[in-house]
Design brief:
This protein has eleven helices and two strands, in the order αααββαααααααα. With 228 residues, the chain is mainly alpha-helical. A hairpin with a 3-residue loop joins strand 1 and strand 2.
Length: 228
Amino acid sequence: MQVRRTASEDVYDSIKEGILTLSLKPGQEIKINEIAEEMGVSRSPVRDALIRLSSEALVELLPQRGCWVSLIDLERVAEERFLRHSLEKSALNYFIDYEKDSDITKLEYYVSLQKEALTAKDYVAFFSYDDAMHSSIFETAKKARIWSIITKETGHYRRMRLLSFDQPGVLELNVRQHMELIEALKNRDLVLALQIEGEHTGKITFEKGEIMKAHPSYFKKASNEIKQ
């Protein structure tokens, strides 16, 4: 039986997708009345959705003042990258235990879709196929729920990754690392797979400076930079 979705869930999904795909920019004001009118709902489900997004640190909701898309917090980016890296390392162990030829074929398929998105310069599609490939790793490892936790808890890291796609060579490197990871998994070489995964999730650290230079208004100031 299909579960009926609530208006609040629909609004939540719509706003969250806008935030994570950067169609809603960091620091952009979110107006409750406009969202309600656009989606054909009352103000109440919009408020509920924003409260939920606030709990995920994706919006800043200030009573009597308004609501804004949260600025990217580099401390959160580092924490979320650590979460993703730690859980994916464990998942790779299980993947090698459970993998079949069809699982490798599925990973290769998603990389082929990434290549098509790269040719089309469709960054959002590229990112969605990236997610699909990594999600497939967790599914094969019988840890699909863990991937859903990662996607829920890593909004700042995910926005940072999407911004990195503007940097020269980043998308090509992403595809190359995926291909190398798949080859290591195909050969059941866990040591090499873990090394590649570490390089893959860690490269955002090296891209940070250029991303901040290109989009300085998108980032929250570190606490030691804020004047007292």
